[in-house]
Design goal:
The chain contains 4 helices and 5 strands, in the order E-E-H-E-E-H-H-E-H. It is α+β, with helices and mostly antiparallel strands. It is elongated and about 85 Å long.
């Protein structure tokens, strides 16, 4: 099967990958991995051995896609858990991140808006020019 890894095309087969990895001792798995035969290899190690390229030249995702297409079982990084589905809409989440309503209880926790001035020294909002809550209310 033709696979592109690090912008280079490779004609890989499942049997060819198994034969290439035979006798290679697996490194410690710290990220994504792939099971080849009875062993679990880090995907970067597999990519390096199979392509004979430096592992900095390709991403783990490229190797995972290629190995999955060949029929190998690929595994996520140890301890990696999928992100929980949000219970809030994207708008609610964005609002909470910007200091608006709290996502969990729907209450607006934003500070009160400051009184605006019309530039002449009187607050906007009332016909007489006084601000709500000012001494004119007394």
């Amino acid at each position: 099967m033709r696979c592109v890894i690090a912008r280079y095309p490779f004609d890989l087969t499942k049997d060819g990958v198994v034969a290439t990895m035979k006798g290679v001792k697996p490194e410690t798995v710290t990220g994504e991995s792939v099971t080849i035969g009875r062993r679990r290899y880090p995907v970067k190690q597999v990519g390096e051995v199979v392509t004979r390229q430096d592992r900095r030249d390709f991403s783990a995702g490229e190797v995972v896609r290629a190995m999955a297409r060949l029929g190998f079982t690929c595994h996520a990084a140890p301890g990696a858990t999928p992100a929980p589905s949000p219970d809030a809409t994207p708008v609610q989440t964005a609002s909470a991140l910007l200091g608006g309503a709290d996502v969990h209880d729907g209450q607006d926790r934003s500070p009160a808006a400051p009184a605006h001035s019309d530039g002449v020294g009187t607050a906007l909002g009332r016909a007489d020019g006084s601000a709500p809550g000012s001494l004119a209310d007394a």
